Amino acid sequence: MTAATQSTSSVQTANTAGLRGTSAGDTALCTVGKSGSGLTYCGYEVGDLAVQCSFEETAYLLLNGELPNRRQLDAFAEAIRQHTQLPTAVIRVLEALPADTHPMDVMRTGCAALGCVETENSFDEQYDATLRLLGSLPSIMLYWYHYSHNGKRIECESDNLSIAGRFLEWLHGKSPEPDHQRCLDVSLILYAEHEFNASTFTARVIASTLSDIHSSIVGAIGALRGPLHGGANEAACAMLEQWHSPDQAESELLAMLARKDKVMGFGHAIYKTSDPRNAIIKDWAQRLAGEVGDTRLFAVSERVEEVMWREKKLFANADFYHAGAYTFMGIPTKLFTPIFVCSRVSGWCAHIFEQRANNRIIRPSANYIGSEPRSVIPLDKR
């Protein structure tokens, strides 16, 4: 390979690394960093949805293209509620998983098992399959969690029409505090959709092969499992829990920056100056901090946010204040990313619908930077 060829290939590779700035298709579902607040679902600002709508309304919007009226919303929420109980075969799979299984592996395995028991035999079944996933993924998580950690088999049924409410009810064994239910509901809205992120693109690639919906969602869960995508809120929580005061946080954070350590929960691949979801969940974290009498975690979080902007001009993203909000609701850290799954499955499925409606297999090309063509030398002469 000549120096000129190497130089050209290196430039091409650098420009396309991670496909940053490359359009990979069309979508009517979401804009990221393009208008208004920087995030819209089907034309609606995410901030408006988070204030005026429920997660069920938002999921309906993504799957149907329009917000529901009262009758449509009630029917949609009730249909999801009817899909919360798990098949016996799925329960047996969950009970076979050890307590130290990574919770995202539980979600992946539970979804795969559901796909074996309730296989999508036709794309005509995709909407019902989506309702089933919305209803059963929280059940999969919490059934395994209680069984593996407490030896308790929970009944995954409730009169609560809210996915957020059922999650907190099953987690804590009692009706949730209204503010906690609403905070988790808002969180689900914020995490529901985000254009062609890694997990969504994974789902669309699999769907483009005309594979079934469960295979597409299993692949998306696998992508979300990575700490550079869905695990940032867990990593942020682990970091914040180490520090007992804002001053200690600032001192140790400065040392981290000096060592060039990765600080999770800051910056974004698309947003340049702020993440529109951050202010919304930060307000909720502050509200819940006051309700539970927190005098440390929220103050530490604010100081870290201030230092990161002062020192690096890096802003807190959606994951950062979720760490505090979830902690104040008594949600174990290991369940943070599975909650992301319970939300984002609405966006994933909407993208699968969209891909199937105008499908062409996703098969990009690559810039080859290897050896020039050469002949094989016989084994005894190498």
Would you kindly provide a written description of the structure presented here, covering whatever features stand out?
The protein is mainly alpha-helical. The chain has two domains: 30-227 and 334-357, Citrate Synthase, domain 1, CATH 1.10.580; 232-328, Cytochrome p450-Terp, domain 2, CATH 1.10.230. Helices cover 59% and strands 2% of the residues. The chain is built from 17 helices and three strands. It has helices at residues 3-16, 46-52, 55-64, 70-81, 88-96, 103-117, 126-150, 163-172, 178-191, 198-208, 213-224, 232-240, 246-258, 276-292, 297-312, 318-328, 336-357, and strands at residues 30-32, 39-41, 44-45. It has a three-stranded antiparallel sheet. Helix 6 (103-117) packs across helix 7, helix 9 crosses helix 17 (336-357) and helix 10 packs antiparallel against helix 11 (213-224). Residues 1-14 have low confidence and may be disordered.
Helices and strands in order:
Blueprint: H1 3-16, E1 30-32, E2 39-41, E3 44-45, H2 46-52, H3 55-64, H4 70-81, H5 88-96, H6 103-117, H7 126-150, H8 163-172, H9 178-191, H10 198-208, H11 213-224, H12 232-240, H13 246-258, H14 276-292, H15 297-312, H16 318-328, H17 336-357
